Amino acid sequence: MKGRNWISSLFRRLWPGRIHASRSLPAHLRRGAAGEAAAREYLEQRGFRCLTTNYRSRRGEIDLICREGICLVFVEVKTRSSEDWNRPAAAVNWAKQRRISRAALDYLKDLGQPRIVFRFDIVEVLMSGDQVRTIRHLPNAFLLAKPYRYG
Questions:
Q1: What is this structure's pTM?
Q2: Fewer beta carbons within 10 Å, N or C terminal of the chain?
Q3: Residue whose C-alpha is closest to residue 72's, from 122, 118, 110
């Protein structure tokens, strides 16, 4: 068994793309990726222009970075199969907002710190099995986390 995993790992490194990665992902990660794709399509249909997906810095990660007119929009996508306990947006607590804020500041630094209007949105995606049931867009869901400032 150990030998097979090593061979599979080597094959993936030597020939990336030959093995369909989504088959090997756990169900919750596949659901999350499907939710992000649905959120992107939803926003694009409403006039957003998606610039980057899954931006990562050493201080955090942002699911989608889009433009709506002159505004740069940092989007956190939360995908759930039900709302029995809480709405998906409730998972974007203070600590998560802080990580997103830090990553947004890193992205702006990568751009050369332009004088630009930006905001933080949340997109909730509810799924039934593999099908998207509901998408809710919450614009300007939170502000840049304290003590961070920009501009």
A1: 0.81
A2: N
A3: 118
